[in-house]
Amino acid sequence: MSVKEFLESGKDYDYSKLEKELEKLERFNFFISRARAGTGGGILKGLPVSIKDNICVKGVQTTAGSRILEGYVPPFDSTVSLRIKESGGIIIGKTSQDEFGFGTFSTNCAYGVPKNPWDPERSCGGSSGGAAGLTAALNMPHIAIGQSTGGSISCPASFCGVVGLTPTYGLVSRYGLIDYGNSLDKIGPIGRSVFDVALMLEIIAGRDNRDQTCIGEKEDYTGYIGKDFKGKVGVPKEYFENVDEGVEKVVWDSIKKLEGEGVEYEEVSLPLTDAALYSYYIIATAEASTNLAKFCGMRYGLHEELRGNFNEYFSRVRGKGFGEEAKRRIILGTYGRMAGYRDQYYMKALKVRTKVIQEFRNVFKRVDLIVAPTMPMIAPRFDEIKKLKPLEVYQMDRLTVPPNLAGLPHLSINSGFSKGMPVGLHIIGDHFQEGPIISLASMYESLRGDVKYPEV
Ligand code: GLN
C-alpha cells in the first residue's frame, strides 16, 4: 500500500504490524534509536515518519551519528518534527547517518553502518543512509526526513532507488538541526513516490520565526503532480564524464523516454563542475570545524570527570567522542580559514561559489530544468569502500555537490537498474522551482511505472 492509498483509505495504521516489520529490518541498522512521538490525526492520519538523527525530536535521543552526543536528549522539538506532529505524523525513530553528515556512504557512523536492502554487501549511500535504506526496505506506508549539505539526500536516494527531494536553501526551517555547514544545510523528505515527497514538503516548508534564514513561502506542491511538464531540459556534458557505462545508459534511456513524451532537451555546459567540488569541501569543512567547537564535553552529550586544565579536558573528551572523519574535517576546516591561508582557501572558495551560482543562472536562461545522473556509479560494496582514500570519497560527490553549493532544489528518482542496483535520475531547478521539478518527476514516474522493491 502506498502513502496515498493509506491516506485515502480512512483506515487506522497497523502499528503492531509495523513493529514486526521493523524487527525484521533490525539487521540493516537503519535506526540509531527507536521512538514513538506524536498523537496522530491531522492530514497525515498517524502515518509513520522517520527522522534523520541530526534533527532534534523532543524527548528522543539525538546524536547526529556521533559518540560525542551519545545520550543527548533534546528538551525541545525542531520546527520540522513539530510540524510533522501537528499534521498527525507519528515519529518512529531516528535514522542512521554519517557522523554529523560527514560522508558519502554512511560508513562513518558510530552506531552501526546501514546496509542496502537491494544488496546488504553494499552501502545505502550517505549521509542520510538510514533514511533512504528504510524507505526502500519497509513495505508499509512511511516517509523519511533526511538532510543534505552536499548531496546527502540525493546520493542515498539514488543508491536505494527511492525519491529524495532537497529543497531550495532556506525553504525549510532548520531550527533544531545539528548543523554541519550553516550556509549549505537543507532538510528534505525521502519517500517511495513523488507524491510522498511533495506532500511532506508541503508540511515542513515555509517561514519560521525561529530560523532567520528561512525565507520560503510554501506552495501547493502536490498540485504539480500529474501536471505535464512543458519546458525544455538541459543535459550538462560535464555530468557524463567519468560516469559508469551502465549508469550513463540507464539515464539516457530515461531522457529519451521523456523526449518521446515531448520533453525537448539540449546539451548545456557547466565548466565549473570540478571547481565547485573543491570550493564545497573548503567551505563545508570551515563551517563544520567551527560548528563542532561547542562539543567540548561540558554542555552536551559525552562528558567525564574534570581532570587537568580545560584544554587537556577538552582534548580528551573530543579525542574520544569524535570519529576519524570528524577529526580530519576539523583539521582541514581550521587550516582553510587560518590567518595566512584564509584568502588563499576560504575566501577564494566563496568567490568560486558565486561563480557557480552565476553559471547555473546562465544555463537556466536557456532551459527550465537540468537532468543528469545523480551519482556517477551504483552503490559500492563495503569492501570497495574500504580501499578508497578520503580524497577519492570526496570526488564521488562531484555531481551532487554543485546544486547543493548553489542552494538549488533537486530531486533524485529511480531511473532504472544497472547490475541489479538502482540508478538515480537527477532533476535540478533554479531557486524555488520545486514545482516544475515535481511535475517533471511525476511525469517520469508514470512513464516508468512502479519500482518493485526487494522483499527483505
Ligand atoms: N558527502 C558530502 C560530505 O561529506 C555531503 C554530505 C552531506 O550532504 N551531509 O560533505
SS field, number of helical segments: 15
What is the number of E strands?
13
Please identify the structural class as seen in this structure. alpha/beta
**Bound ligands, named by name, code or SMILES:** glutamine
CATH class of the largest domain: Alpha Beta
The arrangement of helices and strands along the chain is HHEEHEEEHEHEEHEHEHHHHEHHHEEH
Determine the oligomeric state from the structure: single chain
Strand content: 15-25%
Shape: globular
Rg value: 21 Å
How many discrete structural domains?
2
Q: If you average the pLDDT, what whole number results? A: 97
Q: Compute the separation of the termini in Å.
A: 16 Å
State the strand order across the main sheet: 1-3-2-6-8-7-12-13-11-9-10
Are there runs of 5+ residues with pLDDT below 50, and where?
A: none
